[in-house]
Write a structure and sequence with these properties.
2 domains; binds NADP nicotinamide-adenine-dinucleotide phosphate; Dihydrodipicolinate Reductase, domain 2; alpha/beta
Length: 348
């Protein structure tokens, strides 16, 4: 379904100048349902034209009508609409709450509200039913707050969801995360060129806890967390875009390797059934290449929205191990936020 420009749903981008904000602008410029009504960022950028304030990092030029838009401060002074947040977590908590209080539908990428019991933490194909949690939210004026998981967690939970049917018990994951995941300017070049940094602040805790909520069940308005143990080690690597994760898994009922590949390849979710504009055709691609997946080769798979999995093999400690790759600013942020908004528009 494509809407005429006058019928498109207006949206505002909070944190429009950052890595995630720029990706939102690129994706929304061609979105069939949504159109950008306002751009917000910090006091440093407010009052300037977008083209003047932003350090544009995207490969395509800034859409001309966006370059001339005036940036506003993050105050809910525009008409109520959907607010996509790419705000730094140091400020996201308060600003997002204020927008929800004022009746906006806030779709956030920041960590601040993710684990609150009444806030859905959603990957469109994995747990769309959790969006029902918004019915228990108490914001006045019909405000809603929905969150995206951490960028690595989105790829990881997509890979794990089809394996839950085999009684997934334990997961060990080592991530290799791109520099764009740290925002702009992010990690200093002298720290990351010719180097790997085995520490990303707060990341291991997110990878160990967020999947338990996402893979849990919504029962009587409450999420019952998945009974699963996850141990994570997170590393920053000198790759621009594309987070990789090397994962070992242990099951209560060990399946055959073919069962796992079939479960991944045949996996489809609500966004595919509804044919949502941002949905990949297949959320998971299994690649048989001996040295796959790789950021350079696979981060653009299926609108940058698919997770590519490869190298499934036996594990001498657990049952199996494999590697996964997903685009951190698209699948890991903007694309997943768009899917959540598309699900909300379709279902609520
Ligand atoms: P970023 O490049 O540092 O951008 C941060 C944005 O927040 C900028 O637009 C900045 O505006 C704005 N901002 C900072 N301080 C502000 C203030 N006091 N008031 C209003 N706006 C303020 O960060 P990013 O990588 O885009 O990440 C944005 C959020 O998404 C973070 O919460 C991050 O954890 C999350 N996330 C990022 C990724 C990724 O791959 N990068 C993936 C998933 C989730 P100015 O330019 O005016 O300072």
């Amino acid at each position: 379904m494509t809407r005429d420009i006058q019928d498109k749903i207006p949206v505002v981008i909070l944190g429009a100048t950052g890595c995630v904000g720029q990706k939102f602008i690129q994706a929304l410029a061609v979105h069939p349902w949504f159109s950008i009504a306002a751009l917000c960022a910090s006091e440093r950028s407010a009052g300037k034209n977008y083209g003047e304030a932003v350090n544009w990092l995207m490969p395509k030029p800034i859409p001309s009508h966006i370059a001339n838009m005036k940036i506003q401060t993050c105050m809910p002074s525009m008409g109520r609409c959907i607010a996509f947040s790419g705000l730094d977590s140091s400020v996201a908590g308060e600003i997002e709450s204020t927008f929800a209080q004022e009746g906006f539908t806030v779709v956030s990428n920041a960590r601040n509200h993710r684990m609150h019991p009444s806030v859905p933490l959603v990957v469109g194909e994995v747990n769309p039913d959790h969006l029902d949690l918004v019915k228990g939210q108490k914001f006045p004026n019909g405000g809603i707050l929905v969150t995206n998981p951490n960028c690595s967690v989105i790829g990881i939970t997509l890979a794990l969801k089809p394996l839950m049917q085999f009684g997934l018990e334990s997961v060990h994951v080592v991530t290799l995360q791109a520099v764009s995941g740290a925002g702009y300017p992010g990690v200093a070049s002298l720290d990351i060129v010719d180097n790997v940094i085995p520490f990303i602040s707060g990341e291991e805790e997110k990878v160990e806890t967020e999947p338990l909520k996402i893979l849990g069940n919504l029962i009587d308005g409450t999420i019952q967390q998945a009974s699963l143990k996850i141990s994570a080690q997170c590393n920053r690597v000198p790759v621009t875009d594309g987070h990789m994760a090397c994962i070992s898994v242990k099951f209560r009922h060990k399946p055959n390797p073919d069962d796992l590949i079939h479960a991944w390849e045949s996996f489809r979710g609500e966004p595919q059934k509804l044919n949502l504009p941002t949905a990949p055709e297949k959320p998971i691609h299994y690649s048989t290449g001996l040295n796959h997946p790789q950021p350079k080769l696979h981060r653009h798979a299926d609108k940058e929205m698919a997770v590519t999995i490869g190298r499934l093999r036996p594990c001498s400690l657990f049952d199996y191990k494999f590697a996964i790759l997903s685009h951190n600013t698209m699948r890991g942020a903007v694309g997943s936020a768009l899917l959540n908004a598309e699900l909300l528009v379709t279902n609520l």
